[in-house]
Amino acid sequence: MGTVTELRRRDRRLDNPASQLGRVYLVLRDADYWLQLHEIGEAILARFEQMDSHAAISARIRQLRGYGQTIVSREVSGPGRARPHEYRLVTAWGGGGDAA
User: Strands of 35-36's sheet, edge to edge?
Assistant: First the structure.
């Protein structure tokens, strides 16, 4: 087994559309309304011609939160007993409107 002698931290650019993280960030950043996972996925497909799964998008949202981005969520009424979530990126400038 080898040993790690040096750890290199890559600078993560959140605005990189070549990565899932970047695509999710860019869609949330540019949205001026609340989005459900399927809407985020549709926006990614329309803008970047990439298809990211709902599970991947959800994981990237958690990852963005870990990087210090404020992403709020709320439950909305769905068909039957479903309780889908909507997501919104809140910027330092108060973007996100009714995200209180």
Answer: 35-36, 85-90, 70-75
